[in-house]
């Protein structure tokens, strides 16, 4: 066992508090709800699951909510439920977390990307339309398109939805960042402009269940297969049996599913957190406003919020104006050395080694690549203390000055 030197307090006291780009906020009330479940009859497959799902459906005004053990599992079975398989094609944005693309590979399908609009970081609907026109000619249209609501700001879903009618593809919204965000005054996740929406409840996201996710849809057939896919492909409802029920012990496995279930412990935490979602969004938007006011004369750009979009502000993303790639890298080093947890959302997915091995390379999606050489996310979370927020702002200005003097 490694022994700590009892006389060396230096490291402990010198260490500055690290301010991450995002973190969970768990209240006493949340903890009480979790403890209640630990003392109850069901830790999994109990009533807390239904209760959380109903709360989400009611909040979003959608018909069905299906809880899962991660956003990634949600994307996977969303693709499955829409019939994605070998030989099919899925398109998404290169500026996203790898899970938005990996879900296609899980199904044996191919992935391709559509470049972003550099001012919003979101999938460019102009590029999407151009690519669809070409794909129609070559007979390689996508079966599914996954728009990603980066940082909680909705993509142009009206445009994407109308393209989906013309070119006959399905839409899964990756709303991992966007619980509480709005598009034309409606909450993201009500599936007005998509078949399916997927949320993540990882601790940095809008609300958390530790690990976890939620799938929403208004289509009863999709809902039925999603419920089945999350639990081994099994149904317990005799009304849906393919064969006559041999007895009360019976259930049927009708397709190949997974164990992607959320536990009741997680559902109780999620439901408790959901009660505060409006406050959470308000607080995050307030923090964004302070950054915008305090950094207004700096050589940076905040991501543009389009008209009729109200971001949940999962992330506060800025881009350095007129700086070199090497200076962007240096800026990260300066801020990290000051214990400010700035992060890049995201390094383009097509440039990850796994995707390079599939043939992707630099230069294919130039906006996403340029974006990654200038963007960074600043700390934002509901209980970010004012003192820490102003420390970030101060260090941000000092570090930018240092860059300029280099
Ligand atoms: C977090 C995230 C996911 C995956 O969610 P998990 O719950 O971590 O599996 C997918 N897409 C995006 C854009 C995300 O940020």
List key phrases describing it.
13% strand; 406 residues; seven-stranded mixed beta sheet; alpha/beta; 39% helix; single chain; binds pyridoxal-5'-phosphate; globular
Sum this structure up briefly.
Helix content is 39%, strand content 13%. The protein has 406 residues and is an alpha/beta fold.
User: Over all CA atoms, what is the radius of gyration?
Assistant: 23 Å
Order of strands across the widest beta sheet?
1-9-8-5-4-2-3
What is the overall shape? Answer: globular
Q: Share of helix among residues?
A: 25-40%
Q: What's the total count of β strands?
A: 15
Average of the residue pLDDT scores: 95
Distance between the termini: 45 Å
Class based on secondary structure composition and strand pairing: alpha/beta
Question: Which small-molecule ligands are present, each listed once?
Answer: pyridoxal-5'-phosphate
Low-confidence stretches: none
How do the helices and strands follow one another from N- to C-terminus?
Answer: HHHEHEHEHEHEEEEEHEEHHEEEHHHEH
Q: So how many helices?
A: 14
Quote the beta fraction.
5-15%
Let me know the largest β-sheet: 7 strands, mixed
Structure, described:
By secondary structure, the chain is an alpha/beta fold. Helices cover 39% and strands 13% of the residues. It has 14 helices and 15 strands. A 7-stranded mixed beta sheet has the order 1-9-8-5-4-2-3, sandwiched between helices. A 3-stranded antiparallel beta sheet has the order 7-6-13, with no helix packed on it. The longest helix is centred in the C-terminal third of the chain and has 20 residues, at 386-405. Residues 70-72, 96-97, 99-100, 148, 174, 176-177, 200, 202, 213 line the site of pyridoxal-5'-phosphate (PLP).
